[in-house]
Amino acid sequence: MKTFGGSVLFLDRSDINTDEIIEAKYLEELPKQELETYLFQNLKIEGFNPATDVAGVKVIITRENFGCGSERKNAPWALEVNGINTVVAPTFAKSFRQNMFENGLMAIEIDKKSIADMFRTFADKETECKIVLNDDGTAKVKLIAGSLSKSYQFNADEAEKALFNK
């Protein structure tokens, strides 16, 4: 059974598009493994530095409409080669979410209220995440920062459940 989770990067912005995830020119010019250094190179969020903030991250928690913009089937590769296995957001661009699943990556949709609570409670802390799929089919995102721990329920769809069994 595959596991998802790890250290968390909070990206506090909606509408992060595929050009900000990885520029199209790199997808055309470079093989998959060489995309690593270009992840989020064009992403502008105050206080965010892709050269230092991405290393060791396994989970991204962000705002609405992650992966919008141009459809790039291989944009999730840039996440994958950086070791990122999960993105948690209220919504994703439909094609990007599907491409995440096709690449064995988790794209979890959680309501805006829960996402807001995650940012309020954990964004300023070193946070670990565990994605849990229970035997009864319920699922949760569990965030842990020191002695602080909180879980957020989500509805795991068939694509998400299938990833756990790969």
Task: Give the arrangement of secondary structure elements.
Layout: E1 5-11, H1 18-21, H2 24-29, H3 50-53, E2 59-62, H4 75-81, E3 86-89, H5 94-102, E4 106-109, H6 112-122, E5 128-133, E6 139-145, E7 148-154, H7 158-164
Parallel strand pairs: 1-2, 2-3, 3-4
Antiparallel strand pairs: 1-5, 5-6, 6-7
Features:
alpha/beta; single chain; 166 residues; seven-stranded mixed beta sheet
The structural class is alpha/beta
Number of distinct beta strands: 7
**Tally of helical segments:** 7
Strand content: 15-25%
Determine the mean pLDDT: 92
Q: What does this 3D model show about the protein?
A:
The chain is globular, with a radius of gyration of 15 Å. Strand 6 and strand 7 form a beta hairpin. It has 166 residues and is an alpha/beta fold. It has a seven-stranded mixed β-sheet with strand order 4-3-2-1-5-6-7.
Task: Give a short overview.
By secondary structure, the chain is of the alpha/beta class. The chain has 7 helices and 7 strands.
